[in-house]
Design brief:
about 80 residues; mainly alpha; about 0% strand
Length: about 80
């Protein structure tokens, strides 16, 4: 990560210092990188994957049991192109 620093000159106003800082930030690309990281997803841990898989298996078996008991109708597989 690159740190951007701007020193205020003697005869320079605060507004122009802020403008120079903003320009340096845009040129460095730090802000775009940070904003891009905002939406990246972390990889799931082994435990979370295992827990999700076990939950999926449990739901499937429960659904099959309900179908065998006649409490719900089996869903016909989709046909045609997607």
């Amino acid at each position: 990560m690159i740190n951007v620093a701007v020193e205020k000159n003697a005869a320079e106003s605060g507004t122009s210092t802020l403008r120079r800082f903003t320009k340096k930030m845009q040129e460095s690309g730090v802000l775009n990188r940070v904003r891009g990281n905002k939406y990246t997803l972390r990889t799931l841990s082994h435990y979370k994957k295992k827990k999700g898989t076990l939950e999926k298996i449990r739901r499937q078996s429960e659904r099959l049991t309900l179908i065998k008991l006649g409490k719900i109708q089996p869903v016909a597989p989709r046909t045609g192109r997607r």
